[in-house]
Each structure stands twice: as C-alpha cells, then as structure tokens.
Design goal:
- This protein is mostly helical.
- Strand 1 and strand 2 form a beta hairpin.
- The strands form two sheets. The protein has a two-stranded antiparallel sheet with strand order 1-2. The protein has a two-stranded antiparallel sheet with strand order 3-4.
- The longest helix has about 60 residues.
- It is built from 13 helices and four strands.
C-alpha cells in the first residue's frame, strides 16, 4: 500500500474520495445498462457496458495521474493554445448536424477510435483555465474595460455563445463559473456587474428570437426552452413530465433502504438512466441513506477543493482549483437536483459516476490539474519542514559547540587551580 501511495502525490484525502466515487459507480452503471440492452435494444450485453465503463475509468485515471505529475504552471500555456482550437471545434460541432438513434445530437461529434465526444466539456475546462491565466497576468494592474473586453470577455462570449444553442445548462454553468473567478480574481466589480446584466439580456433576447423564429436554430433550443417552461410554469395537465415523474417514482420506491442492488424498476423507463438520471437509480436501489452518503462524498470533495484553493502558492493555482473544482461540484449538485425535481431537466452528468467517456475523461483531467496544485503545496510544505529541521539541527550543533567549549574552559580552570 505504501508503494502505491508513493506514486500518488498531492492531497491524499482528495485521491481517496475520487477513488471511492469511481469504485461505487460500477454498481449503478451496470444495473442501469439493462435499460440499453432490453428496453432500447442496442444489441449489446450488459457486460459490454460494464467493461466500457471500466475502460473509461482506467483511461481517465491514467490521464489524472499524468496531469498531476505536470507542474500546474504549464496549464497557462494549455489555455492560451487551446482557446482557438476549442472555438474551431465548437463551430464545427454546431454546424455539423449529428444524430444518435434518430435524435438530434448537435452537442456531439464522432471521433475515430474514441467514438462520441462532447466538445463543450473540453471547451469549459480550457475557458476556465484561460480566464484564470488572464486574471493572473493582470494582477496588480489597473484594469480598463475595453482592453479587458477584447482580451477576456470576447473569448468568453464566443465560447459560451457557441455552446448555448445546443446546451443551455452547460453554457449557464460556465458563465456563472467565469463570474466567480472574476470575483475571486479582483476583477473590477462595476465591470463584472455590467457584463452580468448584459449576459442575462442576451439570453432573454436569444430565447425570444428562438420562439419567434424557430427555424433559425437547431431543435435542441426547443428542447431546453420546453424544459424550462415545464419546470417554471403551472401543471395544466398537458405537459410532458415523463422523465420528471419517473425520477420521482424511482426515489419514492427507494425509500430509506432501497429495493436492492440491480432491482430498480424505473431504470427501464427513465431515458439516460445510466447518465443524466443515475442518481435517481442510486436512491431507488440503495435508499435515501446511500443517496445522502454520495452527496456527502461530493461535499467532502468540495471541502478539499476549498482547502486546496486557500493553500495554493500562487494566484493562478488558487483560480485553477476554484474554476475546475467548483465546476465539477456544480455539475454534481445540478445532476442530483434534477433527479429530485429541484431543478429543470439538464444534460449534466454526475462526475465520476455517470457513464460516458467524455464526462469521465474531462472530470479526471480537471482533478489531475487540481492535484498538481496540491502536489506543489505539499512540496513547499516539505521544503519548509526540511528547512526548519535543518535550522533546528544547526541550532543544536551551535548549542553543543558552546556547551563543549564551556566544559573545556571549566576543565582548564580546574587544572590551573590544581597546579597553583
């Protein structure tokens, strides 16, 4: 065990929480995969989806380990180089009409060998890193609005605007996280307030245009607008509440102790039961107690992120942990909030538990980058301890030297007195 821990640097508690979440994920993913096999009829066996999830996690943890070995300062270059690449990728994704099982899937592209990939997940990480490096570069400088608009807000607006039509929830969470980073990074509050108001106004205008001219936008816009309408408006008996009602039924059937592993009934009725609604399946099979335990694991991870951000040796490290770490936790809270009907239906995965290669890989990349910051904290702490130990040894040697000198002087006095 000690040999294994020797290869895992950084926050050990964070490592433990991440590994625990990943190990727990196998049971609900395996159980929920029966929906794809018997209800959807993909022609695959349940073991196929278990092995697929296992491979995603193995690749993800290898990526996490590699990222945590890299000095986190290099992620500033990753952000600068990655921004134009993700913009091109998002434009390509938006223009390419993609379908999965006959449904619109404009959030996804097909990558050889990898398969289905969601560029917005990668764009979120790169954008948050870009904002963190920009705020670090203007530290202790007087910030003017227009220079910062072209260097900061224009890239943010382009990325969020390209994600918005196909994935409103991701765009909203990214923009919210950008604003949090701005606040922590001491960006002028008056400019931040103005941008926030402008962002809300833009979304309202976009929604009105989408309703007035539905042919101008992909049908994913209709999907997320209707989800908001269903959640916010009164239930007049005409709404399609299929997913919401089945999630409620799953949680109600679970009760305190659950119906038992693999015995979920609602997994056969809930679309995306192994990803978007996996938390409802967890509560149904394992009960409210385990559901709260999973929530506490994410809260524990959130607490470790706060500690890591507080101890980060540089402003960029602090912003990196805040941006990537809090984004993961918000995704988890949104996923669980949707499952218990506190939030409108979204496409946010439950990090490290939901099936899906893109979500797992991007989550592992983010955690690896955060662990890289905590590794540097540990190195600095060890250097301080070594310095203190060296200082103590030096003081001890000096004290021993004077003691020996004093003893020698006393012995010399004694010999002189005896001779006299």
């Amino acid at each position: 065990m000690k040999k294994v821990l020797a290869y895992l640097h950084g926050d050990k508690i964070m490592w433990a929480l991440v590994i625990l979440l990943a190990l727990f994920s196998f049971l609900p993913v395996y159980s929920a995969s029966t929906n794809l096999v018997y209800t959807v009829g993909t022609g695959k066996e349940t073991g196929y989806y278990l092995v697929k999830h296992f491979i995603h996690l193995i690749v993800g943890f290898v990526l996490m380990w590699l990222m945590h070995k890299v000095s986190y300062r290099y992620f500033r270059q990753v952000a600068i180089i990655g921004m134009p690449l993700v913009v091109v990728l998002l434009i390509y994704t938006l223009l390419k009409t993609n379908t999965i099982n006959g449904a619109n899937a404009s959030r996804w592209i097909t990558v050889p060998i990898i398969g289905q990939f969601q560029p917005s997940s990668l764009a979120a990480i790169v954008l948050l890193l870009y904002v963190a490096q920009y705020l670090t570069s203007i530290k202790d400088q007087v910030v003017e609005f227009w220079p910062s608009f072209w260097e900061l807000w224009l890239p943010v607006g382009i990325v969020v605007g390209l994600i918005l039509p196909a994935n409103f929830s991701t765009a909203a969470v990214i923009f919210f996280m950008v604003c949090i980073l701005m606040f922590i990074g001491n960006y002028p509050k008056k400019y931040l307030f103005s941008i926030g108001v402008a962002g809300i106004a833009f979304v309202l205008i976009f929604v009105l245009m989408a309703k007035a001219y539905p042919g101008m936008f992909p049908n994913r816009v209709d999907t997320w607008i209707s989800r908001i309408d269903r959640f916010a408006g009164p239930d007049d008996g005409t709404k399609d509440l299929y997913q919401v009602e089945n999630a409620k039924i799953a949680i109600a059937q679970g009760g305190i102790v659950g119906v038992g592993p693999g015995k979920s009934i609602q997994k056969n009725f809930l679309p995306q039961s192994s990803s978007d609604f996996i938390y409802a399946i967890i509560v149904e099979e394992y009960g409210i107690g385990i559901g709260i335990f999973v929530l506490m694991l994410y809260i524990g991870l959130f607490y470790r992120f706060i500690i890591a951000a507080h101890k980060a040796p540089t402003l960029f490290g602090k912003l990196l942990v805040t941006g990537l770490g809090f984004y993961l936790i918000f995704q988890a809270l949104i996923n669980m909030g949707v499952a218990v009907s506190l939030l409108p239906t979204t496409g946010q995965a439950l990090p490290l538990i939901s099936s899906g290669g893109t979500a797992i890989l991007m989550s592992c990349f983010s955690i690896g980058a955060i662990l890289s910051v905590t590794k540097k904290e540990s190195e600095i702490h060890k250097e301080e301890q070594d310095r203190l130990e060296q200082s103590d040894k030096t003081q001890e040697m000096v004290a021993r030297f004077y003691e020996e000198r004093l003893e020698n002087e006393k012995a010399e006095v004694t010999r002189t007195e005896s001779l006299l």
